[in-house]
Specification:
A hairpin with a 2-residue loop joins strand 1 and strand 2. With 135 residues, the protein is of the alpha+beta class. The longest helix has 19 residues. It has a single domain, classed as TATA-Binding Protein (2-Layer Sandwich), CATH 3.30.310.70. The chain contains 5 helices and 6 strands, in the order ββαβαβαββαα. This is DUF302 domain-containing protein.
């Protein structure tokens, strides 16, 4: 499923295992995990209920810097983000913004095509590894 550059893949495992796999894949592929935000825990702290919703901010300078050299405004969308979330049916999903869409959004798609293609391929491979297979 893709909506305005947002790519979502259903995971074949639950939210905890999906999140653990994501952290492992990021590390294995040499990406830095800058932050992990548990929105459901934040909601619980405010006395509210929210299904699993966990945001990961990650990347590396070799990928992001060429995009920011093309246009610094893309820094609002970097580092990259991935969201592990659970829908009302209990299915777990992994969602992320396609880097090519981000470049289009900031008007540098033509000049950053090689970089965004590589980033998109890497994110696609990470997402497939994280969401495929069973326990």
């Amino acid at each position: 499923m893709a909506i305005d550059g947002l790519i979502s893949l259903r995971s074949n495992v639950g939210p905890k295992q999906t999140a653990d796999r994501l952290k492992s894949e990021l590390e294995t592929r040499g990406l830095t995990l800058f932050a992990q935000i548990d929105h459901a825990a934040g909601a619980a702290g405010a006395g509210l209920v929210l299904r699993t919703t966990e945001l990961f901010l990650f990347g590396n300078a070799k990928g992001g810097t060429p995009l920011m050299q093309a246009t610094q405004t893309i820094g609002i969308d970097l580092p990259l983000k991935a969201l592990v979330w659970q829908d009302t049916s209990g299915d777990t999903w992994l969602s992320y913004n396609d880097p090519a869409w981000l470049a289009e959004r900031h008007g540098v798609a033509d000049t950053t095509q090689a970089v965004t293609a590589a980033m998109s391929a890497l994110l696609g491979a990470i997402a497939k590894a994280v969401t495929s297979g069973g326990a």
